[in-house]
Amino acid sequence: MRAIPFAALAGLLLAACTASVRPVEQDGTGLWLAAGRPVDAIIASVETQIDPALPAEGFHIYDAGGVRHIDAGSEAGLRYGLYALQRAEVLKQAGPGMDLQEKPYYDLRLLNHWDNLDDTVERGYAGLSMWEWTAADIPVERIRRYGELCASVGLNGSVLNNVNSNPLILDAEHIARVAKIADILREYGIKTYLSIKWTSPITLSGLKSGDPLDPKVRQWWKDKAAEIYAAIPDFGGFLVKANSEGQAGPQDYGRTHADGANMLAEALAPYGGIVMWRAFVYAPTSPDRANQAVEEFLPLDGQFADNVIIQVKNGPVDFQPREPFSPLFGKLRNTKTMMEFQITQEYLGFSNHLAYHGTTWEECLDADTYRDGPGSPVAKMVTAIAGVANTGQDPNFCGYVFAQANWYAFGRLAWNPELGAEQIADEWIRQTFLMPEGMKEKAFDKKFVAPVRDILMASREAVVDYEMPLGLHHLFGGTHYGPAPWERLGRPDWTPAYYHKADSAGIGFDRTRAGSDNVDQYNEPLASTYNDLATCPENLLLWFHHLPWDYKLSSGKTLWDEICLHYDRGIKTVESFRATWQGLKPYVSPALWEETDRKLTIQASDGRWWRDACVGYFQTFSGRPLPADVEPRRTPIDPLIYRSILSDRLGMPQHDEAGDPIIMMPRRFRRP
Ligand code: GCV
Predict the structure, then answer these.
(1) How far apart are CA 574 and CA 38, in angstroms?
(2) 94-100: average pLDDT
(3) Is the CB of 394 under 6 A from ligand 1?
(4) Tell me, what's the pLDDT at 284?
(5) Looking at 71, 89, 259, 318, which residue is catalytic?
(6) What's the CA gap between 134 and 47, in Å, rounded?
(7) Contact at 8 Å (CB) between 149 and 31?
(8) Is the pTM above the cut of 0.85?
């Protein structure tokens, strides 16, 4: 008898083991509600009651008299309880004797949609606006589904339109339309909010000024508030981007952010509405953009009305793959602040790259601000939380099944910022991916859930590694998709060169006491920790320090070598995701498997593009060879420099059949 080679035998055994396992068809449109029992079935199986003694949005699930009960402080609390039970059932935590009592950590848990009235979505990568502003009617079914998804993770507010707002959102036609949306969202416990444009009184009613101290302007906003509340009695309030990136604001009239916010707050106060005033402000003249929010807002601490909350992005620059937390969180003592995270992956590969943000947000929420001494984490400094949504008309809402994990994680952390990113990832996988037919739970856990969880948990660090490791930041080209470290034209603080400051001597932004002194916007001991090279965390090294290429890191290797090794590690990590995913084919619906396989191919190729561009460009300054143990570059710097990726009309980057980016010379550099 001929011996069967070992590899063939192993293959036969694997085939025998998986032959009876059949993936269940699914296309991602079930999101994280795919695996649970329908909510109607859950309602039919429990006894519910409203108990005013419970917190308004809280619930209590318990067993008594052979019956499962859900008591809640309100209808909204009841809904959260139903979804909590659904989740617990999927997670096998709903056995007899279940006793679960919860209430949300933050009262305000909002999505911010950057949706425009022409249906485009700023930084949206899942198709046109899910609200379909230009259609004759509102998309009722999609809005219901959205309401269900938000409620299932405990979100209770939606700002429907872009912070770069169109004044028409406040005309009669749009208020009527928003009221229809609000009527649906209300059924899911979601309040409706709008972003407003500062100059609305001028554009809509011909007023001569937008001065917040002008009585006519003040009256205009009061009248507008009355009009809105007549249509939407529980309207939540306004989100405001003012004196930021070309948007007008009170400073145009010599007034402060507090003057502006308080005027709007006064108009909304009679109805219980709030103003979320964004701290994302930075003038082109500031020597360090990262310093500016504290410089502008700290002097105003205590001057804001009670119904104003300052909405602060997690980092001091702009949703980079890694930033330290914004120092404002540790500075304002007499002003309410709220967190602004970005769910949509503007800087992390759009809806093409797998980048789980649970770890990003956990890192930020857990960071100690030392505002009230040790044990003052960011999560406790803020009183509310918002996330820039990653939704669109795409049938799966997010453009990629793995992008759905970020919407889910945001909701869960908004409900309870003490939850761990790994637990959330685990929950999401089990609720999203259906267990194959013929597979036992233990096998599913080991062969599918665990490896996918490992991918999620490693994914954000991989992006940091292949895009901008060791504290480098903002190395993007115009669309914010690909690398452009060479870019130095235009407004300085919009160009990568402003942030990396690479030259023959070294690289990095000096934010120490010898530089922009951004470190001193943090409370001690953090300020000194960041200032001192010996204690500055290496993952933020070049955020705070400009260092020579031969500076030695803790590994004993030079900065140059470590930069190259980090880019290389990022690519290798994505290649390991691809290899893992190949092995998961027997367990995932072909539709989801193919989608992810293609996107991981694109991600690995994009990672090499980032590496080739950044390492190649920085090498023109360092003049050093690549360390021996990294993958050689695929493309030299010359065909990459000054080029960017081809995008479609919605700004989505284009890749060829092989998943490689289609790189081209931008129009402004092309010969006529
Ligand atoms: C909505 C960044 C983004 C802009 C965004 C802005 C903001 O600059 O690139 O698209 O505008 O942040 O948060 O206001």
Answers:
(1) 35
(2) 98
(3) no
(4) 77
(5) 318
(6) 43
(7) yes
(8) yes
